[in-house]
Design goal:
The chain is an alpha/beta fold. The chain has two domains: 175 residues, Rossmann fold; 63 residues, no CATH class. The chain is 33% helix and 25% strand. The protein contains seven helices and ten strands. The protein has a six-stranded mixed β-sheet, sandwiched between helices. The protein has a four-stranded antiparallel β-sheet with strand order 2-1-4-5, covered by helices on one side. A hairpin with a 2-residue loop joins strand 1 and strand 2. Helix 2 crosses helix 3 and helix 6 packs across helix 7. The longest helix has 18 residues. It is globular.
C-alpha cells in the first residue's frame, strides 16, 4: 500500500509577462496534501489561488518547482485530476445522464458499463429522478451536482474546485457543502478548494492554506481540528474563524473586506 502524499507542491514559482517585464504571481509555494483530505486555498483576489489550482492540474506550467500527484510529476492535464468550476460546463443538448457520461467516453467502456457507472454517480448526488432532464430544466444547485457527478465518475485522484458554490444563494450553497461532505465520506477523494468564504473554508476543510498576494505565497497553514458535522454557531467554529481573520489582520492585508465572513 502506497503512503505517498496525494499532492506535493515543491517550491513553485510562476510569472506572467507584462509590459516592460514579468509579474510574479506565485512565489516559492510548498505544501503537501494527504490522500482523502479536503484542503482550502483561502485568500484575497489577486493572490494567485486560481493560478495555483491550474498549475496543480497541469493546465499552467510553473516557471520552476514541481507538482507531484501520487508521486508522479504533473506535466500536462490528466484524468488523475479533474477541475470543477463555477460555470457548470454542461452541454445543453445532452441530458443530465449524457453529460455525466461525457467524461467516460474516452475510456471506450462497453456502453452498458458506461451507463451503469454514470448512473451510479447520478444517484450519488441525488439526481436519479432528473437523469433524463436537460440543463435548462435544472436549478443552479442541480447543475452543480450534475457537474460534480461528472467529475466523480472519472474517479480522479484529485478533485480541484475553483469557487464552485460562489454563484449560488446561501441556502443552496449550504446544502451543497453538506452534499460534498456526504459524498467525500463515501468516496474519500482528495479535494482542494479555492474560496473567498472563511466560513466555507472552516466548515469543509481539514486544513486551510492562507495565501497572501504580491507575489502569491502561502503565509499560514491552519489545521481545523474539529469533528464533522460542524456547527457554524459552535464555539470551536468561531475559534477557527477568528484565527483566520486575525491572520489577515496580522499580515496587514488590505483585502480582508473582500471575504465572505
Amino acid at each position: 500500500m502506497s503512503h505517498l502524499p496525494a499532492v506535493q507542491a515543491e517550491r513553485l514559482d510562476k510569472s506572467f509577462p507584462r509590459e516592460g517585464g514579468a509579474e510574479r504571481v506565485l512565489d516559492n509555494i510548498d505544501f503537501t496534501v494527504h490522500k482523502g483530505e479536503i484542503v482550502s486555498l483561502l485568500g484575497p483576489s489577486g493572490c494567485g489561488k486560481s493560478t495555483l489550482l491550474n498549475v496543480l492540474g497541469g493546465f499552467e506550467k510553473a516557471d520552476s518547482g514541481a507538482v507531484l500527484i501520487g508521486g508522479e510529476p504533473v506535466v500536462r492535464p490528466s484524468r488523475k485530476c479533474v477541475m470543477l468550476f463555477q460555470d457548470y460546463g454542461l452541454l445543453p443538448w445532452r441530458s443530465l445522464l449524457g453529460n455525466v457520461e461525457l467524461g467516460l467516453e474516452p475510456l471506450k467502456l462497453p456502453k452498458q458499463e458506461q451507463r451503469e457507472r454514470a448512473m451510479r454517480y447520478v444517484k450519488l448526488v441525488g439526481l436519479e429522478d432528473k437523469s433524463a432532464s436537460f440543463p435548462h430544466q435544472l436549478s443552479g444547485g442541480m447543475k452543480q451536482r450534475a457537474a460534480l457527478a461528472r467529475a466523480l465518475a472519472m474517479q480522479p485522484e484529485l478533485l480541484l474546485m475553483d469557487e464552485p458554490f460562489a454563484a449560488l444563494d446561501t441556502f443552496t450553497r449550504y446544502a451543497l457543502q453538506d452534499e460534498l461532505l456526504r459524498i467525500h465520506a463515501k468516496e474519500r477523494v482528495t479535494v482542494m478548494i479555492v474560496t473567498h468564504d472563511i466560513d466555507e473554508a472552516v466548515y469543509l476543510s481539514d486544513r486551510v492554506l492562507i495565501m497572501q498576494p504580491s507575489p502569491g505565497r502561502v503565509a499560514k497553514e491552519i489545521a481545523i481540528d474539529a469533528a464533522r458535522p460542524r456547527d457554524r454557531g459552535h464555539g470551536d467554529f468561531q475559534h477557527y474563524r477568528k484565527l483566520i481573520l486575525e491572520q489577515f489582520r496580522f499580515t496587514g492585508s488590505a483585502a480582508e473586506e473582500e471575504f465572505t465572513i
